[in-house]
Amino acid sequence: MEPTTNTDFDVAYIADLARLQLTDAEIAEFQQELDSVLGYVKLLSEVDVEGVEPTAHVVTRNNVFRNDSTRETLDKSAVIDNAPESVNGDLIKVPLVIGEEADGVA
Amino acid sequence: MTEDKKLVQRPKPGTIHEAAAALADGQTTSVALCEQLIERSRAVDAAINGFRQLDAEAILRQAERSDARRTAGQEHGPYDGIPVALKDNLAVTGESCGCASRILEGYTAAYDATAVARLKAAGMLCFGRTNMDEFAMGSSTENSGYGPARNPWNTDCVPGGSSGGSAAVVASGQALAALGTDTGGSIRQPASFCGIVGMKPTYGLISRYGLVAYASSLDQIGPLTADVRDAAVLLDVVSGYDDRDSTSIPTQNGNFNQALDNYDIGSLRIGVPAEYFNVEGLAPHVRTAVETAISAYRDAGCEIVDLTLPTMKYVVAVYYIIATAEASSNLARYDGIRYGARASTDDVLETYYKTREAGFNKETKRRIILGTYVLSSGYYDAYYLRAQKVRTLVRKDYTDAFQKCDVIISPVSPIPAFRCGEISDPLQMYLMDIYTVPVNLAGNCSISVPFGTHANGLPIGVQLIGDALQETKILRAAHWLEGVGN
After folding, report:
1. What ipTM score was computed for the predicted complex, to two decimals?
2. Domains in chain B: boundaries
3. Could B110 and A19 be called an inter-chain contact, meaning their C-beta atoms sit closer than 8 Å?
4. What values do phi and psi take at B306, rounded to 5?
């Protein structure tokens, strides 16, 4: 397979969108490998897809509703126990999302 | 190959259906079945790494309870007490469910996957958690966060993937049978590499509730077993409609096991697509195995139908766009907030970066990046939407083909098991999935059955593909071929 350079594809930028921190060595490696993969998948551009509907899913059922009735839910402590940090055994503790300097602004 | 690198063995009894008969006759107990497998695992799994976890004490306690039920005449059916190994991405209440990823270290499932609940309802025992490519992304089980698994036919080779642990523990006599998952060949390819039977049922036949998602429109649970009848048995146990999975098919459950008791193989029309034999890199021994199987069907009176599947050359490209797109979305949930490992920092964004950097291995990161790119603004139409349209054409190819035949025959993988570390280029690895991915794209069913051996002594699998919900046809075709091969 001939590796094709895809000049639009910037690993560092995309990794940031995906919240992935990469080393410089990983960025260089992924850039080369994925340029090659993207070069390969470009062969789809030769397919005539005029008027073809996309397939999102092979099961063509729509509006699958559950019965409107109560059912047992998961055990709360079993769920909370999986959190890296929790408070009082019933709350998940998260890192600070909005900084203190933002107080009163919103 | 030196003998100490070959660890293939069948326990006695060696299958689910033989174990069920032995239990019914009082010739064995669930405890005895489990003890034998645990002992075997202690002897060989250091060399295979097929289990990520095997809690012998907990299993033997369950086995004792099953034996007590049977003694009291209160067993939950014929399979009560029979152990089944589970891939590490299927949820079992109170057990870890790690997808062989460090990012899920410490995670304990709070509920049973529907397939697991059905095993338990039949009295079957959850027998350990099998190694896999992290989050089911890979074709070799070299991408595990817990070290690679090895092939019992030659421990220098990979067992295939991503359900490589499930295939390896069955082939090495550490398990009677296993459940795995197949998104692009992840049951069938390791089954073929390890000389056992592996089946990907029709999308929607087995509930995905409690299966950790990789690519939701392609993922399907299925059996890895010592023979075709066991695949039918497990399918009978775990399949069926589930209102917890909105893509579950509301279908009458087939009696797959019984369907193997009596059938006319000559009534099946076997389709042979020309494109399947023009794949670059198809090993001569693999080609010969498939051609020998075709001759056997012809001799048995089957009509052999020449087919064409023009979209064949596009399926790998379509698969790697759609699967990575869905993966990048599904794996966004691993952010260190609600479960799993968290790299603690004061800043929330920093926590995401650090947690994901430490928790995911290289192949997972590679696929997340590819998937994020093909979904990103400005590129969505060119990659993802176009791939979805070509997926429609792939489905149409198969719909047309199944107007003319009942079962399509093909290789599973162009080559048998390769050596650990032999294939390092991702694209080269992806291209080997050419025979398995179209079945997931089309949502059909397919089974890999051992047939023939390569010159290097490694097993070869032949793939039999059926139309949606035509499991009975491929099971019969596979059952018959298994008889020829033996």
Report:
1. 0.93
2. 3-266+451-459
3. no
4. -75, 130
